[in-house]
Write a structure and sequence with these properties.
The chain has one domain: Endonuclease III, domain 1, CATH 1.10.340. The strands form two sheets. Strands 1-2 form a two-stranded antiparallel sheet. A two-stranded parallel ribbon has the order 3-4. By secondary structure, it is mainly alpha-helical. It binds zinc ion. Zinc ion binds next to α6.
Length: about 130
């Protein structure tokens, strides 16, 4: 509630907007008074998703500045950042490449067999003769 008071709210056509700076300007009403949105609302999430898609999965500040042309989200930076961190597409493209860990070799491959030991002198002699 206290954060809304700082925005000098004004009701225009039944919608709560940010008042103050542009009261006397000749801009259209929707540009003059940004619509105030709560931080934890489904509508807010839909607005963030819409602008996020429209801006091509840009960063938090870019999306937030695009949103602020028409809307003012309470705790906007944290809300947008939290929402964007859940984007599956970005998480997938920014993820680290997995590394393969080699499994230990089976016991048969690392222990010498009796057959090989019996043939070892023959193999060595073949190389020198
Ligand atoms: Zn994304």
């Amino acid at each position: 509630m206290k954060s809304i008071q700082k925005l000098n709210p004004i009701v225009v056509k039944g919608i709560l907007g940010v008042g103050g700076h542009f009261d006397r300007s000749h801009m259209p009403l929707e540009s003059r008074y940004s619509v105030i949105l709560p931080s934890d609302s489904h509508i807010t999430n839909l607005v963030i998703d819409l602008y996020y898609e429209r801006e091509g999965h840009s960063g938090t500040l870019h999306v937030l500045s695009a949103i602020r042309e028409k809307f003012w989200i309470i705790k906007g930076h944290a809300t947008v950042r939290r929402r964007l961190s859940k984007c599956f597409t970005c998480r997938r493209w920014n993820s680290k490449v997995g590394e393969q860990v080699m499994a230990p070799l089976p016991k048969v491959r690392v222990t010498p067999s009796g057959m090989l030991l019996w043939k070892l002198p023959v193999i060595i002699l073949d190389q020198y003769w």
